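Good morning C.,

I know you're traveling, so I'll keep this short. The sequence:
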Amino acid sequence: MEVFETARLGPVTLRNRVIKAATSEGMTPDALVTDDLIEYHRRPAAGGVGMTTVAYCAVAPEGRTERRQIWMRPEAVPGLRRLTDAVHAEGAAASAQLGHAGPVADASSNRVPAVSAGRFFNPLGMAFTKVATAEDIERITRAHAEAARLAVESGFDAVEIHLGHNYLASSFLSPRLNRREDGYGGPIENRAKVALGIARAVRDEVGDRIAITAKLNMRDGVRGGLEIDDSLHVARGLQEEGTVDALELTAGSSLLNPMYLFRGEMPIPEFAASYKLPMRIGLRMFGKRFLRAYPYQDTYLLEHARRFRAELDLPLILLGGITDRATMDTAMAEGFEFVAMARALLREPDLVNRIAADPSTPSLCIHCNRCVPTVYRGTHCPLVPQPD
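The tokens, ready to paste straight into the viewer:
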């Protein structure tokens, strides 16, 4: 495979195998699309990616990580259609990341309890989570299907089902967060029911009208969390049921160990400044315990992802440390059908076009992670000069 050849993703043809990964934008103050959000995705589309991913489109009001995020409802469709039209005009495809934040939701911001596999105190919302009932699971599963239908109406070419980072479905997968004694707890066969059921509902709703991908943790990166063997069980289930066209492999817990995904420097002062009191003080005092730093290296999720590539026939998307032509070529040589880029494109939205023109083009991203807390303020990479 060659990264700049056209590629099939389910029913969709992409102009190349590079996907802009979902990165929270912080540009929807009224939980609706803005011109800033459209421009945010138009730029990497014009810059050469095959597809850009809008993040984050919650399937229910309480499924938002905070109140300003888009949640999928008819009122959101016109703005989302403007966004997909702008992306399509640049020759790229558009994907909507659909999910329910579960325990990662900020209950104080959303003004409704955060829902999780189990009950525990969530420092993000300074409140205890609500244990999801069977009725909650059924409602949220239906909400994913309805959100996917609205994504079709909005002109999206694909949806990405969020099954990672200890969001709701991922909280059920985690032995640490899921200690239930009903049919959704215990062995992985039970803990996987929510994730597999959501994917099945989305496929049943949209059929092959659009592509369906899923973002799945390989491991949570926390003691007692999801590990690779159990994650492979989920991946095999998705493959066997034919509910997804590709799987994006990720890692880390937004709730317990967020930097396990990002790698690189840890800008604690910038993170603390993004939160209100008392979280701001807590992060300044104890941030190094929660925001643990991990050294950056290219293709840093490849070692774990190799096991998935060896055991699955399903198309896979390699994420993590894809910054230049060499890392893209490594992914292709290892048998991955697509690569996903995030921080490098925040630094340089036109990077893909420049790599295509000159394979020796380096990325200017220095993995400082100062872009990560900026999403709460609706800004971009702080190293990029912004217009007045």
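Safe travels,
E.
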